[in-house]
User: Fold this.
Amino acid sequence: MSSKRFYQIPPPHVNPDSLSGKLFVIEGADGSGRSTQISLLTNWMERKGYAVVNVGLKRSTLIAKQLIEAQQSKIIGPITLNLFYATDFVDQLENVIIPALRAGFIVLCDRYIYTLMARAIVRGADPGWVKSLYSLAIVPDEVFYLKAKPQLLIERNFQKKATLDYWESGMDIGYSQDIFESFFFYQKRMQNQFLQMQKEYGFQVINGNRSIRAISNDLISRFEVLLP
Assistant:
C-alpha cells in the first residue's frame, strides 16, 4: 500500500500512511459531460463492489449555501471569492475526503483544486498565492480532464438549462457584454490554462466532444487499470 502525498504538507494530525482509499478527479467545464460521467462511474464502481463517495465544488455543509448566495449577488470581490472556494474545499477535505480515504473508500471528485486555481489565475490572481490556498490538498491517484469545444459547451448548456451561467461565461471579467462571446473567450482561456497545468500535474486529457457512451467506455477502460 502506497501512502498518499500532499502538495506541500499534510494537514495537522493526518497520517498519509493511513489513507488507504483512492482519490480520482474528473475535471471539465459546464457542458463537458463531467457530472454525467461521475454518475456513470459511481454506478459502475458500486456494481463492482467498491464503496464510493462523491465530492465537488460548493458542497460543504459549512459554507456552500453562503458561497452560492455570494455568487448570486454578483458583487463579491475576487479575493473573497477565492477564499470562499478554498474554505469550501478544505471543509470537505477534512470532513469527507480524508475520512473516506482512511476507511478505504474510493473518492470521486466532480472537479477539484485545478478548476479553482485555473479560474483564479484567468482572473488575474498570482499563481503562487493561489497554489498556497490549496497546499493541504491531497495529490489524486489520477486526474481526467474532459476537453470539449466551446461551441459544443454552449449547445449543451442550452439544452440542459436554456441559459449560460454568469460566472462560467466570465461575465465578471469584462471580455464582452455579449454573454455568448464572453463564454467563448472565457472557456478558451480556461482550456489554455488547463493545458498548461496538464504539463505540471499530468492530467489525462479525454476527448469530450464524443457521445456519452463513447466517453464512458473510454473512462471505464482506464479505470479498470487503476482500480485494485
Summary: The chain is about 50% helix and 10% strand. The mean pLDDT is 93. The domain at 16-148+202-226 is CATH 3.40.50.300 (Rossmann fold). The longest strand covers residues 22-28.
